Amino acid sequence: MLGRDDIGVDFGTSTCLVTIKGRGIALREPALCAVDKNTRNILAVGDDAISMLGRVPPNIVLVRPLKHGSVSDYDITMRMFRYYLRKSQGRRNVFRPRAFLCLPGSLTDVELRSLSDAILDAGARRTQVIDSAIASALGAGLDVTNSYGHMIVDIGGGITDIAVIARGRVVARDSTRPGGDRFSEAIARVVRRKHSIVIGERTADEIKLTMGDLTKKTDTPMQMSVTGRNLALGLPRTVLVKSNELASEMEEVAQEIAEGIHIVLENTLPELAADIFEHGITLTGGGALLPGLSDLLGAQLKVPFRVPSDPQTAAAVGLSYVMDNLEGLESIFR
Fold this sequence. Notes:
Elements: E1 7-11, E2 15-20, E3 24-30, E4 33-36, E5 42-45, H1 47-50, E6 60-63, E7 66-67, E8 70-71, H2 74-89, E9 98-103, H3 109-121, E10 126-131, H4 132-139, E11 150-155, E12 159-166, E13 169-178, H5 180-195, E14 197-198, H6 201-211, E15 223-230, E16 236-242, H7 247-266, H8 270-279, E17 281-284, H9 293-301, E18 305-306, H10 314-324
Parallel strand pairs: 1-9, 9-10, 11-17, 17-18
Antiparallel strand pairs: 1-2, 2-3, 4-5, 4-6, 7-8, 11-12, 12-13, 14-15, 15-16
Helix pairs in contact: 2-3, 4-10, 5-6, 5-7, 7-9
């Protein structure tokens, strides 16, 4: 049956999702590799690599093949793609799949070609590239093929991609804003300044997911025991971190995102901007899960925001939609 081996790959800074035609999302793992610097051997990928974060000797480095919207290592990327394709398909399918590759719009044509070649080298027989903003819009239930204007704000790990879509094309964009990692970095700075301890990336992410609340409920702040390295003595120390200590630094990151949205709206055709102001902005990506972020952005910009039920998988769901409805969607491919 034609298309039975179609596969969709949503490749982001922090997460890689693989969806298979007729089966939905088959794999969802961190886009991370543990690499031996001396031999260039990959020691772990995805979930296995994330468990090593902050716990590896100096000769082992943790690599994100896509960093801040750019390709950091082609060879590692190709080998990671091969791992994900094999793991998601298992022994069920021996065919070389046709791959629909969802990538950030901030990538250059050279980088797009490199990643497309990487997935071909990894085992795909053919690739079609889709802008991640368009895939996210489709996954959020928006009709991107008409002349109506839609704005997608995708807060990934490395960058926030702000795009206005009409007639299957991105007509305005800003991909320079900070992503979800900057919220974690802000939390680490606060803990260092207020409690004189150094925490790792994984601990900062845990604090963000547990207490990264921008709803400003300071009457009953959340609190969490956090262990890090004492700056003065170099020894482990446990402190109590409260959510209201983090709000100010995190709001500064949110303000940068709001400024980017404002700039894109200023550069959008008046008719399309009117569509967006009337029906709102769609927030996707892992950063959209941050409590209170959509309300904070909406209050600053005076525009309603909507968040899909699972904003992290919006692009992957969009890829599934594309594989099931190829006819009439020719205009969305890069």
